[in-house]
Automatic annotation (TrEMBL):
Name of the molecule in the record: Putative permease
Alphabetized UniProt keyword annotations: Cell membrane, Membrane, Transmembrane, Transmembrane helix
Originating species: Clostridium vincentii
Protein family (similarity comment): Belongs to the UPF0718 family.
Pfam families in UniProt: ArsP_1 (PF03773)
Primary localization class, coarse: membrane
Segments traversing the membrane: 7-24, 44-61, 81-104, 110-132, 144-162
Membrane topology, record value: Multi-pass membrane protein
Length: 177
């Protein structure tokens, strides 16, 4: 029981604070509960499809294939594939992290995982299409031309500043999931 309380202490404290706020300001408390409910509903619609696709990726794509195309010796092909997969992804950024964990289990190079997460957050195809229609082709393509090299540079800098031991810990934690 103590472990359960310790594990969910932030959630419990948040519920207590929202309860106190609701007592003093019913409108604000109900509004915060509505926002929390909306977020939970959104996550409930996004997370199951992500996990289904992850299960399929885990079963259908052999580790050797992932290492060949996105592993340590993949070079530019791994970078390009990371950008394409991240750009083609759908859903909010929190959906990228379970995918990154599966990539780690499959032996994908750390830099390519960082590039994938950067592409997921910045270069999504639907967002590009929206920008072209709303802000113009010049703006959208200029932003993309700046973002892609930026993502790659940041990924390599992060990988350079992260120790080999820390990277091993990250991969080891991903294996536990």
């Amino acid at each position: 029981m103590k472990n359960l309380i310790k594990r969910y202490k932030f959630f419990i404290v948040t519920i207590v604070i929202v309860g106190i706020i609701t007592i003093f300001n019913k409108e604000l408390g109900l509004k915060s509960l509505g926002i929390a409910g909306f977020s939970l509903k959104e996550m409930a619609l996004v997370i199951p499809p992500v996990f289904i696709l992850l299960g399929l990726l885990d079963i259908w794509v052999p580790k050797e294939t992932m290492i060949k195309f996105m592993g340590e010796g993949s070079g530019i092909k791994g970078v390009i594939l990371s950008i394409i997969i991240g750009s083609a992804a759908a859903g909010p950024l929190y959906g990228a992290f379970p995918v990154a964990a599966v990539f780690m289990k499959k032996g994908v190079k750390f830099t390519n995982i960082l590039i994938f997460i950067g592409a997921w957050s910045t270069t999504k195809i639907p967002m590009l299409l929206f920008e072209i229609s709303a802000l113009g082709k010049t703006f959208a393509l200029t932003r993309l031309a700046i973002d892609i090299p930026g993502i790659i540079i940041i990924a390599y800098i992060l990988a350079a500043f992260t120790s080999k031991d820390e990277i091993k810990k990250i991969y080891k934690n991903a294996e536990k999931l």
